[in-house]
Write a structure and sequence with these properties.
Helices cover about 60% and strands about 0% of the residues. By secondary structure, the chain is mainly α. It comes from Umezawaea endophytica.
Length: about 525
């Protein structure tokens, strides 16, 4: 198939891989149990290490309240669970690797995901306090006020229980999320009112809806682009960053990515493969309806978080190639996608009653100046150099300039990827993943879970060993380094080294106790990859 093709492709290997043999199934059971124990440890540790609400019932609760008074122990338990889940995920990689003679089945991977996810549903939020901003913004919407004009402190009052849980930096800022997400949050606020924990749980269920869409779309897209579905699920849905930041952290990125991936799959459902040099068949009404439906889902994802809109551009490229890959086809496809985007955006904005106020709050997150963002870090370095050379403190100006340059570079990268996808030099879905990665990495703000925007689309179309190794290493590293509390330690910096030291010791002891069962997993996989896996 041509690099820019969009239909169902040939299998990665000449023959279908077989199921795991008996020893491998026993090893898979060990991996599952190891990860499940890690998930249970994270749930228990979240009682003292999680981003608990200000008025938490835990301190006065017998037994459970002990973890609140032992933060080092609680955080150590969470980090032990993190080590166990990440190591289990890394061991699982051998049984889903493209080109392997025997692969885990879809049902085996699904059961593994279920075993690791179910305990985490009942954990307190960790790694971030964003869900409390969701609750406050949803309550503002439920009261009939404009969440795009008022922050929680202004709309609800500083003493309101929902406002008190919002980090100080976000208490005065309006909502930066799309109207579709706030419409869902408004329903949750109407059901839960000022009750924090039920609100958190319902928002987590909304995040799980996003996860379910990811699980539905990933294997279908992967099969379409020649990647083993179980490999895509492993790198995507089972990724520790998904478990930690979508399930536990309750970030709405999961819902936006899920809608985006479902939209791509629906749009490509009836789209045939057009071989290079061949005349394209006429577009049928059924095919057109599926494209419109898929594009609509993508725009709905953008109405949760705007980066999903980029997928519409790459879908337009695939449509243009379907029409014949002429420049005029690209113009027609771009116009068609523009009309769909405008129509669906207007329908959502007017239907939810929020109008287009969300467009004025897209830059709210830029108030955060984090070293994790390369342009922001470059701006800090330039400003610091100016101070060192006695040129004055121009840090704010250098940060602003670096961010503008970063965004300009990301636009150039995206345009280049769109053109290469249109010319058939790369798969469009690969261009989408790389483009999202460029936009977010070079953007003014970068959060650990933003990696998923690039990793999940790429998981459906890339089988290269180097990419999967890089994605695996990056995901594992980011999953391990982020503290679970979702906030600073208020002068108690000693808690982190104590917790990490205890977690490392505990993890090593667990490995030693289970070394007989784990030893086969630590050896190199003896089955050689095929030539397609490079």
């Amino acid at each position: 198939m041509a690099a820019g093709g969009v239909g169902t492709s040939a299998a990665v290997t000449a023959t279908e891989p077989g199921p795991l043999d008996a020893p491998e199934r026993r090893q898979l059971d060990v991996i599952r149990r190891w990860g499940t124990v890690g998930a249970l440890l994270m749930v228990v540790g979240s009682l003292g290490a999680g981003a608990a609400p200000v008025f938490s019932p835990l301190p006065g609760t017998p037994v459970l309240g002990l973890f609140v008074r032992m933060p080092s122990v609680a955080i150590g338990l969470v980090w032990t669970g993190v080590f166990m889940i990440v190591s289990a995920w890394l061991w699982l990689a051998r049984f889903v690797r493209p080109g392997r003679v025997r692969l885990a089945t879809r049902s085996q991977v699904d059961r593994t995901l279920l075993m690791w996810t179910m305990p985490l549903v009942f954990a307190l939020p960790m790694f971030s306090r964003d869900v409390y901003s969701y609750l406050a913004q949803s309550e503002i919407a439920a009261r009939g006020q404009d969440p795009y004009a008022l922050g929680p402190a202004t709309a609800l009052g500083v003493e309101h229980p929902l406002t008190m849980n919002v980090p100080n930096i976000w208490r005065e800022t309006p909502a930066p999320y799309g109207p579709l997400f706030l419409a869902g949050g408004r329903v949750i606020a109407m059901l839960t009112g000022d009750h924090v924990l039920p609100g958190v749980f319902l928002h987590r269920l909304l995040a799980l809806v996003g996860l379910a869409m990811i699980v539905w779309a990933l294997p279908r897209l992967a099969r379409r682009f020649g990647v083993p579905p179980v490999g895509a699920l492993w790198l995507g849905a089972l990724n520790p960053l998904v478990l930690f930041h979508i399930v536990i952290g309750v970030h709405n990125d999961g819902l936006a990515i899920g809608l985006m991936l479902v939209g791509l799959e629906l749009a490509l459902r009836k789209m045939p493969v057009v071989k290079r040099g061949a005349a394209p068949p006429p577009v049928t009404r059924e095919e057109l309806l599926w494209v419109v439906l898929g594009a609509t889902m993508i725009v709905m994802g953008a109405m949760v978080k705007i980066p999903a809109m980029l997928a519409l551009g790459f879908l337009g490229v695939m449509v243009a190639r379907r029409l014949g890959a002429r420049f005029s086809d690209l113009v027609r496809a771009a116009a068609f996608m523009t009309v769909v985007a405008a129509a669906v955006t207007a329908l959502v904005c007017l239907g939810t009653g929020y109008g287009f106020g969300w467009t004025s709050t897209l830059n709210v997150a830029t108030t955060v100046k984090s070293w994790m963002s390369p342009p922001t870090a470059l701006g800090y370095l330039a400003g610091g150099l100016g101070i060192t050379l006695s040129l004055g403190n121009h840090t704010e100006a250098t940060i602003a300039l670096a961010r503008i340059l970063g965004q300009a570079v990301s636009v150039a990268i995206v345009v280049t990827l769109l053109w290469k996808s249109f010319r058939g030099r790369i798969k469009a879905v690969n261009g989408l993943g790389a483009g999202l990665g460029a936009v977010l990495v070079l953007g003014p703000v970068l959060q650990p879970w933003y990696v998923l925007w690039a990793a999940l689309p790429l998981a459906t179309a890339v089988v290269a060993k180097r990419f999967r190794g890089f994605a695996m290493t990056t995901s594992a590293f980011i999953a391990i380094i982020l503290p679970p509390t979702g906030s600073t330690f208020d002068g108690r910096a000693y808690v982190v080294p104590q917790a990490v030291t205890g977690a490392v010791i505990t993890f090593v002891v667990c490995v030693l106790v289970a070394r007989k069962q784990l030893y086969p997993l630590m050896r190199r996989d003896p089955l050689p990859p095929t030539s397609d896996y490079r």
